[in-house]
Write a structure and sequence with these properties.
The protein is of the alpha/beta class. It is globular.
């Protein structure tokens, strides 16, 4: 069942009618929840007291509880650990850039994709997040920082396209003019490559950026790093990306985590260039964050620079991701994992 913070305005109007109120109360509710970002019904002062009591009784309002906030002394990045109503924990990151504030949110508790270099997937998937739990990461961060979020990346724990329907609700509410009105062009969704859902997403008439976690120049190397490669070949994934650009006109971002000695040679760069040179794309090189459960190491600075130069030589648009929050548990899944370990006495 869809909770009230995950509902569209039309759905809220229907709820109001069911509870004996006029439909315009739905618009008021939507504004309180998604524009004023209030954490409870008592704050909704222009709603009748009796109506608020009915809502408390019948429609619990999702509100995440921040249980740990780490602040970087280097660049001001904040890492949030939130507790959900069922006791599970998720994490989000707030980053300051010259073009505005960006939040990276989680879409699931844990992840079932099993990428070898990622802390998020250790322990597997617990459950997917509702649209409201995805939205409230942003709402609680705005409430804490007192600053507007202008860019959102769904790139934290979880595989967004493995939580497809809730993801769509999230995007539509987040970009609604009656809510925070974050431009869809400022929303990025990252996927490790669930091909059928990339095709579905291309038909949704959205203007979001699709970021494809590629991380290898061929199927053999990709299989070593990402189990999803056993299900969908690179050719299938890249065809889905070509289709996404054809349908939306939105340039594809390829995420490429550089793992020392695994996928960072000049030959890897050459092979990657050949695979993607006909796609309107941008490559985001990511120095991998080592985690203690895996033996992978970060590529050296010179190796990373050489890889970038090689891609540019072949005409590929490329940047090296700026490392944010290096002095805190900045990498995806690290804070949640360390919290669970501490809680379990490991």
């Amino acid at each position: 069942m869809t909770d009230i913070k995950s509902m569209s305005m039309d759905e809220l109007k229907s709820i109001c009618i069911e509870l004996g109120e006029k439909p315009f109360r739905g618009k008021q509710l939507y504004e309180w929840i998604h524009k004023k970002l209030v954490p409870d019904y008592d704050s909704m002062t222009n709603l009748p007291a009796g109506f608020r009591e009915k809502l408390k009784e019948k429609e619990p309002l999702v509100c995440l509880e921040p249980i740990e906030i780490q602040r970087s002394a280097i660049d001001g990045t904040r890492k949030y650990l939130f507790r959900l109503s069922d006791g599970n924990v998720i994490e989000s990151v707030w980053m300051q850039y010259h073009h505005g504030n960006s939040v990276c949110i989680s879409s699931q508790v844990g992840c079932r994709m099993g990428c070898r270099f990622c802390a998020s997937t250790i322990g597997g998937l617990v459950r997917s997040l509702s649209a409201s739990e995805m939205l409230d990461q942003i709402y609680r961060i705005e409430a804490d920082t007192k600053e507007r979020v202008s860019n959102v990346v769904v790139m934290g724990t979880g595989e967004p396209l493995d939580n497809y329907e809730n993801l769509l609700r999230f995007i539509r509410i987040l970009s609604s003019p009656e809510g925070l009105n974050v431009s869809q062009r400022n929303i990025t969704v990252s996927t490790c490559g669930i091909v059928p859902n990339i095709y579905r997403l291309a038909e949704e008439q959205l203007q979001i950026t699709l970021a494809l976690s590629l991380h290898a120049p061929n199927d053999e190397k990709r299989k070593e790093l990402m189990p999803i490669a056993y299900r969908y070949s690179m050719d299938e994934i890249l065809d889905a990306c070509r289709n996404y650009f054809a349908k939306t006109g939105r340039r594809i971002t390829f995420e490429y985590s550089l793992v020392g000695g695994k996928n960072d040679s000049e030959e890897d760069a050459r092979e990657l260039s050949q695979k993607i040179q006909d796609i309107n794309c941008h490559v985001n090189l990511i120095p991998v964050n080592p985690i203690k459960e895996r033996s992978y190491v970060k590529s050296g600075k010179k190796v990373i620079e050489n890889f970038k130069n090689k891609l540019e030589k072949y005409g590929i648009n490329v940047t090296i991701r700026r490392e944010m929050g290096a002095d805190i548990d900045g990498a995806c899944g690290q804070l949640r994992k360390s919290f669970i370990d501490r809680t379990n006495g490991q």
